[in-house]
Amino acid sequence: MNNSLIYVLGSNVLEGIDNRINELNQKLIANSSKFDQQMQKLYSKMDRLSSNVNITRIILTDSTPIRVLESCTINWDFTANNKGIEGLEFITHQGSGHSYLLGLCEVNDCDPKSTSNNNGRILVREKKEATKTRKENCFKEIYTIIKTFSVICSWDPVGTLVIPSAVHFDDYSSSSMYHRKENELPTHVAVTSQVMSQVWVDMIEEINQAPFFSLSPLNNNTIYALPRTHIVTSECGIRYGNIEGVAWQGRNELIFVSDQAKNDQGTQCIEKEQSMHYFFLP
Predict the structure, then answer these.
(1) How do the pLDDT tens digits run along the chain, 282 residues long?
(2) What does the alpha-carbon distance between residue 38 and residue 33 come to, in Å, rounded to a whole number?
(3) I need a surface site. Which of 9, 14, 44, 109 has the fewest CB within 10 A?
(4) Which strand (E) or helix (H) includes residue 119?
């Protein structure tokens, strides 16, 4: 393993991370080729707070234990324990040289109470330096721990990218950007829906005003349905019903990863659970 940086998004400061990293309920990893960085996102298990999760920067090497470099808050209100950010991308604005995080909301309108099926959102966050001390009540529903820690940075809101209203997704389970060259824009972005068993592909480009990135107009994007079964069931023949991750392998190639099937899903979903799937786009 070469030296690399990892950004971990979670609800607590990672103490003793070199001994506990394998115990974390990690949800996704996003890569940045320019800085050889990776980012991991963990669900927040905390009560609603104005800044209720942290991004912790750690370093990996071949010969030394994992070492925490810094922990930064991300300012966003999660109104539910199990609905938050499902996709995380690190992106650099070529014009300004500034770096941003793009966070894909799991639900429409970034609101678990939303009844819409075509209001997907991608949050744009920029790193800011600050100094303060906070006390937080972590994992209150399981046990109470009061933690006091110093915050030297935060990821603050810049704006929101709106997924076109023609994309009718009930949920958003992962995202990935394709880099033809190092941090070159415009480039393709893929967003998956677990419920719909579909992937939406569009172009993302940079602009010179907030939120500093934009999605292409409707005629430049496509929705692909993953292969269905020949037998129509209550899930309308869906075979790949648990897609939780997507990554670009090449210009027209996508790799998907499936989560464990739910207890109420049919046998056609069990067949493709907990596995990886390699597809060529037409």
Answers:
(1) 555 555 555 544 444 444 444 443 344 445 444 434 443 443 343 333 344 455 666 666 666 777 777 777 777 777 777 788 888 898 999 999 998 999 999 999 999 999 999 999 999 999 887 644 444 444 444 333 334 444 468 889 999 999 999 999 999 999 999 987 777 888 999 999 999 999 999 999 999 999 999 998 756 679 999 998 877 665 567 889 899 999 999 889 999 999 998 887 777 778 888 999 999 998
(2) 9
(3) 109
(4) none
Collapsed DSSP state (helix, strand, coil) of residue 218:
helix
* Residues 150/167, Cβ–Cβ less than 8 Å: no
pTM of the predicted structure, to 2 decimals: 0.74
In a domain, 281, yes or no: no
Closest by CA to 210, choosing from 165, 166, 156, 154, is: 156
Q: Is 93 a domain residue?
A: yes
Domain count, the chain: 1
- Is residue 154 one of the residues assigned to a domain? yes
- Read off the tokens for 46: 């905390």
Residue type, 237: G
- Residue 48 and residue 80 in contact, taking contact as beta carbons nearer than 8 Å: no
Q: Which domain does 163 fall in, by range?
A: 4-173
Domain-located, residue 255: no
